[in-house]
């Protein structure tokens, strides 16, 4: 029998080789699938970034504006006026004593009235002699303007002109209905009087006194330049 010589090289059994090969192939497959998944995720993210940049470029950023909120009732009234235009007439040479209540009572004979306004002075609250009457229907306003134009009332010829829908705007009836007792100047005057009659701080009083003295000294200089020698002595001064 032949005896095979044993070599120093260590031989790996075939089963182990197969196992090793299988492990290597699985590792490679796992690595390939993981890399593919990562690549796919990166592509999706890149597409999303591109879309976001496109939308940011195309869509303008809305500017911050002051919110002018309008109530639902006002919107409804504006829509109704656009759909159904009202008839407005201008009244001039309005006599004394013919005010909002008298105007509504008088012009009711023509048709339904929605609003009446007399333009008044901001300083005194008295009538300035002209105003506006709004009717429900424009045809009624035309008839009222034709009949009341050059109508003699309390020694005055009343002027009435129809305002067409193209020339109508909300400015005709913006201000409040003022009277002799309640008007802007008297309201502001009452506010100022309340502040002045209230408890004043010492610092404010001192500054007020100083400013009045400066004004009086400036007035003295102007009078001296024109030849009038006058001296204004304050009441709380010891020399008085």
TrEMBL record:
Any Pfam family the entry gives: RRM_1
SUPFAM superfamilies referenced in this protein's UniProt entry, alphabetically: RNA-binding domain, RBD
Entry's transmembrane regions: none
UniProt KW keywords: Nucleus, RNA-binding
Residues covered by the RRM domain: 87-165
Subcellular location: Nucleus, Nucleolus
Taxonomy, superkingdom: Eukaryota
GO cellular component: nucleolus
UniProt GO molecular function: RNA binding
Annotated InterPro entries: Nucleotide-bd_a/b_plait_sf, RBD_domain_sf, RRM_dom
KW Nucleus (keyword) present: yes
Cited PANTHER family: MKI67 FHA DOMAIN-INTERACTING NUCLEOLAR PHOSPHOPROTEIN (PTHR46754)
Protein name, per record: RRM domain-containing protein
UniProt organism field: Melipona bicolor
